[in-house]
Amino acid sequence: MTINNVNEQAVSPWSDPQLAHVSGFRTAEDNLAYEITADEIRGKIPDDLCGIFLRNGPARNELAGKPFGHWFDGDGCVHTFRIENGGVKYRSSFVKTPKYVEETRAQAVKFRSYGHNAPGGFLKNLHMPANAANTSIIHHGGKLLTLFEGGLPWRMDLDTLATLGPETFDGALKKMDTFSAHGKLHPRTGDYFNFGMGMGARPKINLYKISPQGSMVARSALPIDQMAFCHDNAMTENYLVFMVMPVNFTNPLKVLFARDTIDNNMEFQPEHGMKVYVVSLSDFSLVRTLEVDPFMFAHSSNCWEEGDELVIDVVAMSAQDGEIGTRFSRNLFSQPRPATGQLTRFRMNIKTGQINREVLPSGIPSEFPQWDWRLTGSPTRYTYTAGICENETPGFYNAVQRVDCQAGEASVYDCGPGRYTSEPIFVPRNAEAVEGDGYLLFVVYDAGSELSELMILDASNMADEIASVPLRNHVPHGFHCGFTPL
Ligand SMILES: [Fe+2]
């Protein structure tokens, strides 16, 4: 097997089962568009499944044979699977950001990114990591937005995947604003809430409210104690919850003068404490600040209110989990095992400040928690994750699981040796279906064929493969996905 444009020394996928996933990091083809007909599909697309499955992720992780410094630096490529009338129309396109366009032209690194600096000294690195538009994706208010927390969202055309440029919501977002990869859709109002770490003399989190029509109707700033890493938040019926973990620069001047990379200079600093900010959805006012024992995490799952308590589920990482994930993300072509954690439930009393922490049952180490989005902010029983099971090739996410938080058990679907996956998403069978009655959609990459497929699994038993939609290309291992009904 040959791997295009990848350091040959580092790549020997099938000689080392721990590295069988490596070919899934090779660069994607741009601007693909074709149809997979019903007779090509293994199984049958359910009649009641109709919509567009959306995927985003780094799909070019190297240039001219030289790997980027970190997985976060790969150029974003959007893949859409339009599921309709028993068939699927597939389309892909890189997001044509300045980073992608200029570095494609030069076939060399031109911009500072998270894991590497631009050549040319500190004058060439006087900016945040270049926007790779590679992290997440949402279709809201008639706009398809690719999300990258270090910059503005980039908009694409849902039908053609043409890049339409940075989205400012009619100027409400400014050039230096950031917009996270993890906004939350309020199921009752249709509003979309997002946030971004604010630049300036005092650390803050900028808060944004986008109407169902796609306009920014409110914006505010929440002062915080320390500038820190905050990738995700959570939302209840009435509140936003920010758990700001103490991951920060060890020596900001070295980063400023490009004597170090951003990635290498970041460190978990538990001695600085970890605060939880609870913000009212109605006016973005601060309702309560709590303190929690510091821990590392990237993603939270669902969150809801029970009396004075907020219940929030988080994929908590140990220090060792975090180190494993960081090392993996720096060495995609030679390191096994990405970040995983343990689904953990926090109960936070916003009257007394009391916080209880409980590890939830989990069959396998996992990440990328998902739930039934109709119930965001309401109690949920099930969380779905991508994880790593101990089959013959456990070097990357190779399974999905459903954690039944009520029964205290987990159901694992093993993708099989040499077959890998990324974040799954739950799609209810129909608008009236009860929680858990529906489909789990996720992309599977097969290292044997070097091709990908869209898997549709029965979420009610996590075992029945309802349909597998074969692609004629691979979808590189990615981050987040979404679904928009037709
Ligand atoms: Fe994320």
TrEMBL record:
A Pfam family reported for this protein in Swiss-Prot or TrEMBL: RPE65
Cofactors (names): Fe(2+)
Keywords assigned: Iron, Metal-binding, Oxidoreductase
InterPro entries: Carotenoid_Oase (IPR004294)
UniProt similarity note: Belongs to the carotenoid oxygenase family.
Protein name: Lignostilbene alpha-beta-dioxygenase
